[in-house]
Amino acid sequence: MENLNSKDLLGRREQERRWRRQYILNVAERLFAQKGYHQTTMAEIAKASEFGMATIYQFFKSKDKIYLTLLHEKIDLLLKLIKQAIEEAQTPLEKIKAIIQVKLKFFQKNRDFFRIYALHRQNIVVLLREELGKKIDEKYQEGLSTLAQIIEEGISQGEFKRFPPKEMAVLISGMIQAFIHEWIKSEEEVQLTSKLPIILDFLFYGLKGKI
Amino acid sequence: MENLNSKDLLGRREQERRWRRQYILNVAERLFAQKGYHQTTMAEIAKASEFGMATIYQFFKSKDKIYLTLLHEKIDLLLKLIKQAIEEAQTPLEKIKAIIQVKLKFFQKNRDFFRIYALHRQNIVVLLREELGKKIDEKYQEGLSTLAQIIEEGISQGEFKRFPPKEMAVLISGMIQAFIHEWIKSEEEVQLTSKLPIILDFLFYGLKGKI
Amino acid sequence: MENLNSKDLLGRREQERRWRRQYILNVAERLFAQKGYHQTTMAEIAKASEFGMATIYQFFKSKDKIYLTLLHEKIDLLLKLIKQAIEEAQTPLEKIKAIIQVKLKFFQKNRDFFRIYALHRQNIVVLLREELGKKIDEKYQEGLSTLAQIIEEGISQGEFKRFPPKEMAVLISGMIQAFIHEWIKSEEEVQLTSKLPIILDFLFYGLKGKI
Amino acid sequence: MENLNSKDLLGRREQERRWRRQYILNVAERLFAQKGYHQTTMAEIAKASEFGMATIYQFFKSKDKIYLTLLHEKIDLLLKLIKQAIEEAQTPLEKIKAIIQVKLKFFQKNRDFFRIYALHRQNIVVLLREELGKKIDEKYQEGLSTLAQIIEEGISQGEFKRFPPKEMAVLISGMIQAFIHEWIKSEEEVQLTSKLPIILDFLFYGLKGKI
DNA sequence: TATGAATGAGTATTCATTCAT
DNA sequence: GATGAATGAATACTCATTCAT
Lengths: 211, 211, 211, 211
Hints:
Helix content of chain A is 78%, strand content 0%. Chain A has 10 helices and no strands.
């Protein structure tokens, strides 16, 4: 509703502008994922998006900005989806399940983005200097915190064991990330979400637990 | 004993040569970890190691080679340490414990290297063309397989639940990697190995299991 | 007429582009002739042509390409001039006279190019690997063949003695080349073409012949 | 006789030294001829001659020096052979014949050297700055002058036509040089000297002369 | 004496970014 | 608004030459 309205209120000019901006981002996402940040040149982005180089620069101030915007917006979307899923879930257990499910679904639809996302956490070193770079790391931490809070909630409800919540959040995130990473590398056609039950079983009861 | 002997057998010249080579690798490791592969220039490596640029090239044919050799040799060392630890352990459970302990110890001592190691898996896209790049990926897979085998062993001994071993290996590796990653980012002085019990508890009994 | 038309049909942009390209070639020709291929740097070519380095690279893919294009285009021009001259001549004798006259005139106007041209035949060893390098050698052989054919024609018309035509062509080419070479080295202001009668007399009647 | 004596007078040390120096020159000659001056590295010369790099520098002050010494000494030899041949000949005609015959023989035995020799005349541009480089050009001019003198002699004896001697010398040298060049390129096994009669016939009577 | 490891000065080439049109 | 030609700053790599051994 909001989006529609906001679009309607925009003139055709502005709408076209946004559409082109998004188009460039999509092209850049594909190229960055395929060849990596450094191996992708602005000329390639321009050519692949069928814009002139200078046009690209009217939308994004620099190559860095394209890259960071990419991360920024998609992570926002992911966080938003996670938030929605949590709100619809009741118990901590269900919430965790919901988060993982959303992540699997999301990256299943955004393979290209995952490559960039996974890679990014290292580039942080360099990018953290940039304002936008800092914000992305904050968002990543935000995701971790959300998870940690849920775990804490679960602990106080006697649902989960007394583990340090932040550290558990890290472990769980790492599990999921590695799982997705492997799936993308394998280039299998299997539905990533089909693995959810196993992951959850492992997550809740471990290698040995629950008979 | 063996190493000492083999060193004694080498001439002084050869010993010095190896020492210098190693010195360059160490410098490069620090720089790569600090600034990333692309941001580190050969001139910087030369200056920081107090060698002339061309001298660096007498030890390593290219910048790539330095990077890959770095990975190559340290991963070899890690795999060797893991192998030793496994041999000394009896049960699958102890073996997994040993692997994780070794990893935590290793990266506690090799913070710089971890940044490179973690980053590498993504750069694979580009590096896989290189012979040396392929070998490193093989080693990574080797590590996963070892873990998977132990899990399989545990399953057939009724020690672990019937999970798909390879996928469990991925999950566990991801957990550990994320944990180390977070620890390095936090720049805490806490002993990484002190976290072992928590990790193991989570790993074997999950969030909910074994009261 | 044709050229004018074809130029008129080109847009201003394309015309300018060609002009700049030619300008770079001219500058490179002067520098290569003065200092030789290896002693001439891309930076010098850029500076002397008052373009940025990268601009040079937009016109020519590499330093080699500049050099080879230079040879390529000028040799084409020379061959074209020779062809025209031959067509206007009647007898084999007149044709040979025409060829030599054209060559003398051409290099009189293209002193710089001669140095490059003469030198090239030796560098062939290295350049033959390049596609463009091979083509230039073919053109050189083409020039020799043309001369050889005319000699053959002259022989069958009873005009010339029964000499092996190809070898005569080589001898005559060598004569001319050495003559031009010496003239350029001497840096005399005498018209090179003024020497034509002597050369022809020697060529047709030898040191001793025709009283 | 002289050489033997002078050798005998030298100590073993000095004899060995000369022999090594010559060995290096021979190796360099082969390499320069194969790959050209710039493409040949000092390291290659060292390796191919089985000396250490610094040892090469004890014999020759620089790469340039090797190259120039090479030219220097072989040209000296050629000039000496030509001188001898001239002294044994009586008439100008016989002298010219002798010169050409000596050249053909010499380069037939020194193919490698010819490549360097032919190429050199262009490198002059760069090398003339060097003292040794100037001397080589002087020697080349000396050769031309000798030939010109003989022609002059022939003219005053009524043997040859009244041509400008220097220019004739240039034409003849060019002929011979081109002929040898073509022969080397063709890599034929035919004896180069077998072509002498044709060359002389052309040289003395031209394409048309003396039926 | 002989060496080869060490070196720095030099060079071709690339690419993000900016204007002139 | 849109373009792409122009650019300079940056960088991996080479090679003749020199010393320390």
